[in-house]
Design goal:
This protein is mostly beta strands. The chain has one helix spanning about 1-15, and strands at about 15-20, 25-30, 50-55, 75-80, 90-95, 100-110, 115-120, 125-135, 140-145, 145-150, 160, 175-180. The protein contains 1 helix and 12 strands. The strands form 2 sheets. A 6-stranded antiparallel beta sheet has the order 1-11-4-5-6-7. The chain has a 6-stranded antiparallel beta sheet with strand order 2-12-3-8-9-10, with no helix packed on it. It starts with a helix and ends with a strand.
């Protein structure tokens, strides 16, 4: 049974993380298709230790579920060292139907314990900058130049994670996020 759990975990890791999604083309439109959770891309070698993207959530990032899953956090991007559900930092997001805004969160696993904390709200179609800087065994995450998180990387192999929709639900329709270098 543990072999099956390991294989399932490995597939989940590969489907949402790679060596460097920030090295996409200069201007990339990310599509999470209706009925799916994630986008899979082949690994791209990281050059340097600073990751930067300008991000825009497009109109179709607005959604509503008629249950508690409306509070689930989707994942924008981040880093994982080892197993993504053991040690990782990602920026989480969800659409708030009352505020008509995208809420951003720190979404963190440390030794298998998940925590999340609210960062800020952003308007749909507004652009903001995400930076993750890696310095030996530490990383620092920034949103529009303001530090929002810092942590320790406890594994020598780390990955950069791609956008992932859900929690429990898959994307209710195609979701588009624009990312630029």
């Amino acid at each position: 049974m543990s072999t099956i759990r390991y294989l399932i975990g490995f597939v989940v890791l590969l489907s949402s993380c790679t060596n460097n999604p920030f090295n996409w083309h200069e201007d990339t439109l990310i599509t999470i298709h209706k009925g799916t959770h994630s986008v899979f891309h082949a690994p791209v070698e990281l050059s340097g230790n600073q990751l930067h993207k300008s991000v825009t959530f497009l109109d179709d990032c607005q959604y509503h579920f008629d249950d508690v899953d409306n509070l689930d956090l989707n994942k924008l991007t981040g880093i994982a060292w080892g197993d993504i559900h053991q040690n990782s930092y990602r920026i989480g997001w969800r659409y708030n139907t009352e505020k008509h805004l995208i809420e951003l969160f720190n979404y963190v696993y440390i030794k298998g314990k998940r925590t999340s904390s609210y960062i800020t709200d952003v308007q749909v179609n507004d652009t903001f900058d995400v930076d993750i800087n890696i310095d030996k065994d530490k990383f620092f995450a920034y949103l529009d130049g303001k530090q929002i998180y810092d942590g320790k990387i406890t594994h020598s192999m780390w990955f950069i994670c791609y956008p992932y929709f859900g929690g429990q639900h898959t994307a209710p329709h195609d979701i588009h996020i624009r990312m630029k270098d």
